[in-house]
Amino acid sequence: MSEEVASSRTKNEAWEWLKALGIAIVFAFLIRTFLFAPFIVDGDSMQFTLHDREKLVVNKAIYYMTQPKPGDIVVFHAEAKRDYIKRVIAVAGDTVEVKNDQLLINGKVVEEPYLEPKRKEAEAAGVPLTEDFGPVHVGVGQVFVMGDNRRDSHDSRAIGPVDISLVVGRSEFVFWPLAEIRITR
């Protein structure tokens, strides 16, 4: 084989590798921008459902097809440079309030089994898990969100209902640490 043929073959192979790498980078960018993104839990506001420093995957595409529903765990732009992760409690048209440590949506008690570990801690300390508030009406294009660790969560009780346009996506699963992999929905 001549030197020219070998050189040409090496250049073609390098070009094919560069094209493949470029395509992979474009696909990764599109997937991260429009479909899925990693998120790191920062703080204890969703404890015991999610833990500080856990890494999870957020489904960014889901809300192009549907609206957030009560119970969804969502990531949203809360501040210019900071995203929050909280649970959707109520949606547009709902009225939210807490009386005697019971969540009421449109006047009806809502069971929240995901709060049981924190509820037991609060009862042992002789304090309510969730202080009374409301009623708060959720407007069109908004959701009302709260952390599962109600005594340590900066959420819609303080910042008000969140515009759906600020919702990044829904938490799907924890992928780190490996020993804690689980679905979060």
TrEMBL record:
State the CDD domains in the record. Answer: S26_SPase_I (cd06530)
Q: What is its main location?
A: membrane
Q: How does it sit in the membrane?
A: Single-pass type II membrane protein
Which top EC class is given? Answer: hydrolase
Reaction catalysed by this enzyme: Cleavage of hydrophobic, N-terminal signal or leader sequences from secreted and periplasmic proteins
Compartments, as annotated in UniProt = Cell membrane; Membrane
Q: Write out the entry's keywords from A to Z.
A: Hydrolase, Membrane, Protease, Transmembrane, Transmembrane helix
Tell me one GO molecular function of this protein: signal peptidase activity
Source organism's superkingdom? Bacteria
Spell out where the chain crosses the membrane: 20-41
Q: Which Pfam families match?
A: Peptidase_S26
Instruction: Fetch the SUPFAM superfamilies from UniProt.
Output: LexA/Signal peptidase
Any idea of its EC number? Answer: 3.4.21.89
Could you tell me which PROSITE patterns the record lists for this protein?
SPASE_I_3
- Ranges for domain Peptidase S26: 15-176
NCBIfam families (UniProt xref): sigpep_I_bact
According to its UniProt record, which protein family does this protein belong to?
Belongs to the peptidase S26 family.
Tell me the protein's name.
Signal peptidase I
> What species is given as this protein's source?
Brevibacillus ruminantium
- Species classification: Bacteria, Bacillati, Bacillota, Bacilli, Bacillales
